[in-house]
Structures are given as structure tokens and as C-alpha cells.
């Protein structure tokens, strides 16, 4: 009888050890899975951060160097990883550059959270400049306030603000096409502000250096350098 009791205790002891071992393996497995989920996606694809620009308290821009042409699925994975790392920003703008590409001369692709994710591919074979024939000069009753350009994606965008009679016009040139909108001009404390005649959602401010700042209801978006033609 005594022998039987000892045998039962021995079996219980073994079972207890097996239970603890299973629990330990389960916890270890959870930890491994957690580490796998938090993998550094940038290292996974051999990417690196070129620079970061916090353009507003809810906006951030990240330029990323990529070693090769990544597909949409790969860019989406990188974008979601960076968004997780920058969760406090409602708007996150990510631009991808191949090894031979210069920042500001057109990106290979973008993955912008605006606020929802949208992945786009730029023109990588040829940088498309806006036609200089569409750029106005001060003549025939036209006074050009300024001309600015934006090269953040494969196609150059040129902004021109000019005055004709008592009207201020914004001319936006992309490639060989352009659009024009009537603007409202205000000058407060030396700050030249131009807003669309229809609304104030997006507006433009010429800063002290002559650059054109683009804003919306959340604040600053980007700055475009001035160019003389």
C-alpha cells in the first residue's frame, strides 16, 4: 500500500513538472511571436532613413533610401511599419529613393497616409519638367508676383502667382498643362497670404526668403523654392 501511494505521488510530481514546462514553452512562444511581429522592416529590405522633416504637429515627412525597385506589397509593409513607429502623426508622407536618385528631383515612389494609406509610383525613367512656354512673364498688363517649383515626385509642378488688373491668379503648371484659380490676397504683418476665392482650406504664404509655403486647415504642408525664368 505504501508503495502504491509513493508511485501515485511520483506520477503527480511528473505531471506537475510537465504542466510547468508546457506553460513555460507557451510563454516563450508568445515572446518569440511578439519579437517577430516587431521586426525591423527597414533592415529586412535593406532600407535606410535619409532625413525626417516634422512639418506640423500632426504631419511628418520621411525620405527613405531603398536598394532596389520595391513592389507595392513591400512598400506597403514598410509604410505600415513606419506608421506604427509614428502613430501620433495623423498625416505621414513617405518618399522612396533609389541609390542613384537625389532627394527633391523626383521619388521612385511614395506611400502617403493622408490620412489613409495610398501607394503611388513616380516617373523613374525620365524626370518630366513643366513646359517653360507656359510660364508667364511680367508684360501686357500682367505682373508676376513670383514663380516656384516642387520636384517631390517624378513630375515637376510650377506655381505662379500673378496680378492682372485688380485680380490675383494662381497658375499651376504640370508638364504641358496648366490650371488657373482666382485668389484672395491679404497682407498681415508683412506676410503675403493668397487663398482660393472659393474657400480657405488650402492657402499659400510667401515667406521672408521668398519661398512659397503651402498650408491647409491643419497648418504647414511644404515649402517650394523660388525660381527665376
Mean pLDDT comes to 80
Q: What best-fitting shape do the alpha-carbon axes yield?
A: elongated
How far the N terminus sits from the C terminus, by CA atoms, comes to 106 Å
Helix fraction by DSSP (H/I, runs of at least 4):
10-25%
SS summary, helix count: 3
Strand arrangement in the largest pleated sheet: 6-7-8-9-10-11-12-13
- Tell me the radius of gyration: 28 Å
Strand content: 35-45%
Regions with pLDDT < 50 over 5+ consecutive residues?
1-15, 25-37
Q: What structural category do the secondary elements indicate? A: alpha+beta
The count of β-strands is 13
Strand-and-helix sequence, N→C? HHEEHEEEEEEEEEEE
Main sheet characteristics: 8 strands, antiparallel
What would you note in describing this structure?
The protein is an alpha+beta fold. The protein contains three helices and 13 strands, in the order ααββαβββββββββββ. The chain has an eight-stranded antiparallel sheet, with no helix packed on it. A five-stranded mixed sheet has the order 1-2-3-4-5, covered by helices on one side. The longest helix has 36 residues, at 2-37. The protein is elongated, with a radius of gyration of 28 Å.
Amino acid at each position: 500500500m505504501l508503495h502504491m501511494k509513493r508511485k501515485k505521488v511520483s506520477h503527480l510530481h511528473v505531471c506537475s513538472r510537465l504542466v510547468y514546462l508546457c506553460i513555460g514553452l507557451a510563454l516563450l512562444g508568445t515572446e518569440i511571436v511578439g519579437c517577430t511581429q516587431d521586426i525591423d522592416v527597414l533592415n529586412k529590405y535593406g532600407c535606410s532613413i535619409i532625413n525626417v522633416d516634422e512639418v506640423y504637429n500632426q504631419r511628418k515627412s520621411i525620405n527613405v533610401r531603398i536598394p532596389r525597385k520595391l513592389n507595392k506589397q513591400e512598400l506597403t509593409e514598410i509604410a505600415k511599419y513606419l506608421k506604427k513607429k509614428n502613430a501620433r502623426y495623423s498625416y505621414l508622407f513617405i518618399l522612396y529613393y533609389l541609390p542613384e536618385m537625389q532627394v527633391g528631383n523626383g521619388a521612385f515612389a511614395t506611400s502617403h497616409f493622408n490620412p489613409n494609406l495610398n501607394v503611388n509610383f513616380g516617373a523613374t525613367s525620365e524626370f518630366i519638367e513643366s513646359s517653360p512656354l507656359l510660364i508667364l512673364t511680367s508684360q501686357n498688363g500682367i505682373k508676376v508676383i513670383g514663380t516656384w517649383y516642387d520636384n517631390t515626385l517624378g513630375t515637376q509642378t510650377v506655381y505662379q502667382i500673378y496680378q492682372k488688373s485688380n485680380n490675383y491668379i494662381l497658375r499651376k503648371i504640370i508638364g504641358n498643362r496648366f490650371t488657373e484659380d482666382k485668389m484672395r490676397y491679404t497682407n498681415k504683418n508683412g506676410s503675403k497670404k493668397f487663398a482660393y476665392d472659393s474657400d480657405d482650406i488650402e492657402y499659400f504664404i510667401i515667406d521672408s526668403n521668398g519661398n512659397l509655403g503651402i498650408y491647409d486647415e491643419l497648418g504647414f504642408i511644404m515649402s517650394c523654392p523660388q525660381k527665376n525664368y
